[in-house]
Amino acid sequence: MFLETIFIAMREIRRNVMRSSLTILGIVIGVAAVITMVTVGDGATRQVASEISSLGSNMLDVRPGQSFRGPGGTRSGAPMFKIADAEAIERDIGGLAGVAPITGKSVQAIYGNENWSTNITGSTNSFLQVRNWALSGGRQFTDGELRSGAAVCIIGATIRKQLFGEQDPVGRTIRLEKISCQVIGELKSKGQSGFGTDQDDFVLMPLRTVQRRIVGKNDIFSISVSAKDGISTERVKEDIERLLRERRHLGKKEDDDFNVRDMQEIVKTLTGTTRLLTGLLGAVAAVSLLVGGIGIMNIMLVSVTERTREIGIRLAIGAMEKQVLMQFLIEAVVLSCFGGIIGIILGIAAAAAGASALKVPLILNIGIIIIAFVFSAAVGVVFGFFPARKAALLDPIEALRHE
Amino acid sequence: MIAPASGIGDMNPVIELDGVTRVYGTGTAAVSALQGIDLRIDHGDFVAVMGPSGSGKSTCMNILGCLDTPSSGTYRFKGVEVGKLSRDQRALLRRHYLGFVFQGFNLLNRTSALENVELPLIYRGTPATERREMARKALAAVGLNGWETHTPAELSGGQQQRVAIARAIVASPEVLFADEPTGNLDSARSREIMELMTVFNRDLGITIVMVTHDAVMAAYARRIVRFMDGIIDKEEKNGGAE
Ligand SMILES: Nc1ncnc2c1ncn2[C@@H]1O[C@H](COP(=O)(O)OP(=O)(O)OP(=O)(O)O)[C@@H](O)[C@H]1O
Ligand SMILES: [Mg+2]
Prior knowledge:
The complex is a heterodimer. Chain A is an alpha+beta fold. Chain A contains 13 helices and ten strands. Chain A has helices spanning about 1-15, 15-55, 85-90, 125-130, 145-150, 155-165, 205-215, 235-245, 265-300, 305-315, 320-355, 365-390, 395-400; strands at about 60-65, 95-110, 115-125, 135-140, 150-155, 175, 180-185, 200-205, 220-225, 260. In chain A, strands 2-3-8-5-7-6 form a six-stranded mixed β-barrel. Chain B has helices at about 55-65, 85-95, 115-125, 130-140, 155-170, 185-205, 215-220; strands at about 15-25, 30-40, 45-50, 70-75, 80, 100, 175-180, 205-210, 225-230, 230-235. In chain B, α6 links the parallel β7 and β8 (about 205-210). In chain B, strands 6-7-8-3-9-10 form a six-stranded mixed beta sheet, sandwiched between helices. A four-stranded antiparallel beta sheet of chain B has the order 2-1-4-5, covered by helices on one side. The interface of A and B includes residues 315, 318, 319 and 321 of A. Bound molecules: adenosine-5'-triphosphate (ATP) and magnesium ion (MG).
């Protein structure tokens, strides 16, 4: 008899194509929306976090000018750093893994017929360590090269590709501005940053070379500092601030004319922002789940008159109450699960498409998938089953008379 | 639960009503549709129920068909008091002993004639192939071969009525209740239905209780029971269809 009931339930589902597919549609939309939005949001959060940690998450960036209150802002008025400032930081502050004074300029890089406009960064080997760069070929600068300001460079993956294609660049000479420069190493690619810039598009040269032969000034733009593992970046930040205020002779009432940015803080802010975004997306998705649920409810309630008559007929013909109930329960469960499964498949597909379009990793949150499925299935079952239960408890004559 | 069929010639009546009343609603809104019905129907009988509209014919049929229970009085079906049975027991009684043709056909929408007729057999647990064969035969018996795959919406009123009749007799019930089975048919079609009823009654031994407004149709029955304002006004013997 149970098999017969399943058979009847399946036949009713197939017979009422319109009603069945509308019910399924509600569930599909709800489940798919939740899965897509939450998955893409999670991927974006993960992406941002991993990009920032690729910059070096225990890194601090020290720049002249007031803290970033608007673009450029008051920076022009503040005195630039000198190499002595970087040396003072290195000497006086404990717990540092590396200190890299940085200067730079944008230039044309030329090799043979190839021509590419890029940025030169002048710094020391500490730059590689502080910013988490690894070499994919060649070597770092020697102390001699750094001290004498030799015309040597380490190039990023983008330039390597633009100027050399598949050739090995190490040992070759490129032109940067007026000087010829020997390539001694190449950097491993980091790819696009979360802010849309190409991190691989730069040339690293010894600080002294850039100061003397390219920029023509002894200023440095900024100092990147990395703390040793386990050392609080907050403490390091305070120490640097104290030291620099002293060195720049700032009185008690004066504001800092430089700022120290803690990457850890930026990581927190940015992941906090994307997490908030994920939350918002999730809320939108929850609304669509709810709307889907209301749709299901509506369809079930609209069909209740017809279903009540059907129940009356079945009861009159000799069906027992529990058989009718079982039939309706099976119908509701089958429809809900079917819709839920389609929703999950569609949701994962849409999430995968969205993730690849936005270039974020695909991270499936099983918890959310289960919640979305259970919620919409519950809506389907409750609203499919309870009106039927009410009808099945009627006398057959009353059910048949139902308006 | 229910005594097995006792066979033709059994003197015990299939149906016994004693002082049956049915009150709809409560308090001042109460309508007394049946006000004390005594009725006995023997096995193999063919009874026509007549009476003006609102006299309680359908109400009585619903009670006889175990779809409804009396407000007071007793209804015995094959000696079993129906009012004391549970809902499920009454469902089983309907399933195994009764066929019902409703005043409005009450077929399942969007469901083919064949599947509508199969319905009682599904609940009886008849295997699918046998079920289909029986349903086909029942449709043929009411003259609907070739219409098996049509849904109610694609059938005329008379055809729907005949599907309803096929559904009522497909499981060879002991008693067939028909509430105005010819109400929607022209006189030629009505006579065909009545011939069918006569065949069911005479050849298959099905006891028939049928409501009709038409004296010509009532003439096919062996007995006529006349209702008036919720009581039986008159009972008369008929010559039968011959
Ligand atoms: N469900 C109900 N609720 C309230 N009153 C009802 C209900 N069913 C029937 N009645 C009333 O009971 C009385 C008998 O109704 P019933 O349907 O038995 O009449 P009938 O003889 O079958 O009439 P007809 O020939 O028009 O079919 C009527 O007065 C009717 O209004
Ligand atoms: Mg009636």
